[in-house]
Amino acid sequence: MSLTAEAESAGAILAGAGIRATVDTDCGELPGDVETVLATMLREGVTNVLRHSRAEHREITAERTAAGVRLTLVKDGVDGCGDAWLDSKISGGSGIGNLTSRAHAVNGRLVAGAGADGWFELTAEVEILAAAVAA
What we know:
Largest sheet: 5 strands, mixed
Oligomer: single chain
Distance between the termini: 16 Å
Structural class: alpha+beta
């Protein structure tokens, strides 16, 4: 899967749903397994926006860090199911639990949660050198 292609698709899907999206995923070339995991997280994140919120705005960024790459998905409009929905999915085989397992498989970590301000953030960080060596 291509992170760039998923980002373009996400922007179009969100716009079609009337959700303003800021998308910036110009983070350079990534190892194939890392790119697939991040693209999957982006796809799942967009699905989450459409199913579990009243979002009006979405921010999607992927950026290089000193150790690798960070993908951040932020949305407004958490509809009250944010914390309970998240808690029920952390250890499950789908949703956030699945994405956490995928991140760990490429030496990454995932942090997700809803804030009191009605915004939800999902951040995945992957160490590129460790991920490339593991592959």
